[in-house]
Design goal:
single chain, alpha+beta, Beta-lactamase, 2 domains, five-stranded antiparallel sheet, 46% helix, 11% strand, binds glutamic acid
Length: 307
């Protein structure tokens, strides 16, 4: 398959959606992003990354970071993580607080905000917030093979200042005894992990191990055990796109994770990864042109976990 032609063709397919959707505005620093940006990157087993459009430009990865933080938490605490957070789709918006009361402070899954905050608490464990942030940043740099990956301090600060809802979620969870560390420390990890900036190219490369049972196919690093990589993919398929996770699984048929920065990471098991970025979001918070591009890509390639 000519992967360069594939990404070029898919970019043309979705040109009509460029600029559609709403850029996330509840985090002021994200509002400033040009809604007409559109990037696509496909990473293959040999580490080659095929790019089209704005695929080299760093964007705020936001909730896509939750996938990698989950990996670190499972490495730290293993299956005891599931005493603190569930594994079911929420069917609710990413920042919803309603289920938390009925379910006694145990978030539905690690890929919604409340669950990701619990995950941060488990990565922090008995260390400091700064150590946990260094750990995720080092992980992303190593996996991307690029030491320039960084946190956008402006976005992190903006998230902190506008973080009333995330603060509410975190204090609510803590009131049920489900956070071990001081709430503001845990939140400071969460805000900074969401503010990591990466390009489609860097992110596609970084996630490659998830397509190969936890092993980086280029460096041969055993990044995580195969059962863990498979389970992270399962959670992405069922819970990766807020309350449109079912729709995404139906349309795209691959594990994925959306972020409100307009990025979507998708894993094609045994083949590689696809990352798209376009800041205009649908009403559930998933990139509108990005999801359309992934739909065109699976139409053209036949990629699916259901073959
Ligand atoms: N930092 C964002 C928030 O907490 C992440 C949301 C997302 O990308 O889904 O609201």
């Amino acid at each position: 398959m000519d992967l360069q032609k594939l990404v070029d063709d898919v970019l043309k397919d979705v040109e009509v959606y460029r600029g559609h959707g709403e850029v996330a505005s509840y985090i002021p620093a994200l509002k400033a992003v040009d809604p007409r940006k559109l990037g696509i990157a496909v990473a293959a087993e040999d580490g080659s990354v095929y790019c089209a459009g704005d695929a080299e430009e760093p964007f705020s990865i936001q909730s896509i970071s939750k996938v990698f933080m989950l990996n670190l938490a499972l490495d730290h605490v293993g299956a005891t993580l599931w005493n603190h957070v569930g594994r079911e789709p929420s069917g609710s918006p990413f920042n919803s607080i309603v289920q938390l009361e009925a379910e006694k402070g145990k978030p539905r899954n690690p890929l919604i905000n409340a669950g990701a905050i619990v995950v941060c608490d488990n990565v922090m464990n008995h260390g400091t917030a700064d150590e946990a942030v260094s750990e995720i940043l080092d992980f992303m740099r190593e996996r991307a093979g690029d030491a320039s990956v960084a946190i956008d301090a402006n976005v992190a600060q903006s998230e902190n200042q506008a973080g009333f809802l995330n603060r509410s979620l975190a204090y609510f969870v803590s009131a049920f005894g489900n956070l071990r560390n001081p709430v503001e420390d845990v939140l400071s990890i969460y805000f900074r992990q969401c503010a990591i900036a990466m390009s489609c190219r860097q992110l596609a490369r970084a996630a490659l191990y998830l397509a190969f049972d936890g092993n980086d196919p280029v460096t041969r690093d055993a990044v995580t055990i195969s059962s863990r990589a498979r389970r992270i993919n399962a959670l992405m398929l069922t819970c990766g796109h807020y309350d449109n996770s079912g729709d995404f699984a139906y349309r795209i048929g691959l594990p994925g994770k959306s972020g409100v920065g307009g990025g979507i990471l998708t894993v094609v098991p045994g083949f590689g990864t696809v990352v798209v970025w376009s800041p205009g979001l649908n009403s559930a918070g998933t990139s509108l042109a990005g999801a359309a591009a992934l739909e065109k890509m699976v139409e053209r390639t036949g990629w699916s976990v259901f073959v």
